[in-house]
What we know:
Elements (H helix, E strand, L loop, with lengths): L1 H8 L6 H6 L19 E2 L5 E2 L7 H10 L1 E7 L3 H12 L4 E4 L15 E2 L3 H9 L3 H20 L5 E9 L4 H16 L9 E4 H7 L10 E9 L2 H14 L3 E3 L2 E8 L5 E8 L5 E11 L5 H8 L7 E11 L9 E4 L8 E6 L2 E5 L3 E2 L10 H14 L11 E10 L16 E5 L5 E5 L5 H15 L31 H9 L5 H11 L3 H10 L14 H10 L5 H8 L2 H4 L1 H19 L3 H15 L12
Parallel strand pairs: 3-4, 3-12, 4-9, 6-14, 12-20
Antiparallel strand pairs: 1-2, 5-8, 6-8, 7-8, 10-11, 11-12, 13-16, 13-17, 13-18, 14-15, 15-16, 19-20
Helix pairs in contact: 4-9, 4-12, 5-6, 13-14, 15-16, 16-19, 19-20
Amino acid sequence: MYRSLGIAAAASILTARQALCDGSPARHKLQDASGKTGNAIPCADGTFVHPWQPPPREAIKRALRDEEFDVLVIGGGCTGAGVALDAVHRGLSCALVEQNDFAAGTSSRSTKLIHGGVRYLESAFKNLDWSMLELVDEALHERKFMLQSAPYMARPLPIMIPAYSWWQVPYFWVGAKFYDLVAGRSRFVPKSHYIDRDEALHRYPMLKGDGLKGAVVYYDAMHNDARMNLGIILTAVQKGARAINHTEVVSLLHNEDGRVCGAKVRDTISGEESTIRAKVVVNATGPFSDHIRKLDDPNAEDIIVPAGGVHVVLPDHFSPSDMGIIVPKTRDGRVLFFLPWEGMTLAGTTDSKTGITMRPQPSAEEVKFILREANRVLSRKVTKGDVRAAWSGIRPLVRDLSQEAGSTAKMSRSHVILTSESGLVTIAGGKWTTYRRMAEDTVTAVLREHPDPPEEARSRSSEIQLIGADRARVVVGQDFDQITITLRETHGFDKDTALHLTRNYGTRALQIAIIAERENLRERLWPKYPYIAAEVAFAVDAEYAMTAEDVLARRLRLAFQDRDACVSLIDRVLPIMAKRLGWNRARQREERENCIAFLQTMSTLPLPNSA
């Protein structure tokens, strides 16, 4: 009984150990005169925990104005979020500002893979490139960490490499086995293996059978990138970080010795300006790194070479729900993935030079390229009418200043940390999978610049699990299937909605169920997709969503899944947000216009008439 109640009421909780560390009561007996438990959440053993609610935005703004921090992080993507998380766990006070929304840039526009990089491994052996092999080794170690840090969200995914020539079978098999070997004890996923033609077509029925000799299956992992990013942010905030979105850096502050000592910032929603004081400033702005570097030193030489990666989203019938495909060499030598993601098929990515913008847009030629390549390997013809969304991300590749920039496919994917003469620490390059290691190295660099670093400042980030992971194992013992079952049996949600909530919120999924029942917000926002209205309310209440784009693109992921359906949903989302944020009709019209402008960049096709 208590287990069912614990799951049914479970929310974003402070676990026993973490609650005590924060100085607040953790688990205890609690009962009022009527026998009710108030706001406490009952656990399986009859004790209770209190839900954790993030500090309101206004309280964070006051703290940013009034306090001096050990470190100010500029940038709320995965790297900046990781820096904040690592810093607070080393005893540093930390502020973080993001000019748009958390993960609004590159970190929400990835291929969704947590991977070492099979093509990097191939390149390492072909070119005898030890540094590339080290990059794969590092990424495979971090893959294990990410699978452990958010076990409800990150999960292993088998990926098939189809072989259409007999020589490819041993070639792919040996490559996959080396991939397993490099991972070693950090593998944490099943071993790669060969399957014959019949098994390959059974496992991936949409695969072309003509000439197919067999396939090699290896394992990597997948996640919901924007929500993973948000989980890192909230876990850092839970430990004491002050993080705020929609706040841009106007200028950097320098003291009389010329050292960077903070930043002047502007709230892009209210227009209010303020200053944040910090002993060390970190530039973790990805493609925008050079812009921040030039605020420190106008003569700083550019180090970022932006590479555009386009993805196309197709209906789920183009891929099974439990198997991906990699095309190791397209006609122009690039790599292409077909992956099941959030009930859709994700196809991509391209690799080409691009400009730097917060709203990159795919070109029609890049989308056509992906469709042409899809039709080379899939048995069912893919047309532009099948495309539900198409979007572009910008990878911040780092240029070697001693060489001329060449093909972006040959640029470094490893990360680089630079410290300017004034003490600005810039972290650039890298990839999603290695965000934690990048953050650890960055905070180590911060400590070298800090005038009074903590005596004991060992990084603990590899031991941290994220919010929603039932970290003390007191709610469901990290058996997240129990949450799904309770959502279905106790709260009456459909199977796909229950799975969606569990895989994206962990224990916090049941807080959404409570909101759905209490405020009559349990209805689906769109019949085809598992999102419910209560998620919009939760995004505003507990996840710092400030705009309709924040909700539709990065709390829910519908903008990345089905652009046209998303257009139709704006008018359902706005009233829920308006009630919580106090928007009048004029503000709602402004939000609608801004969201429509964003959605225009999520496809190469014109907007539907409903826009």
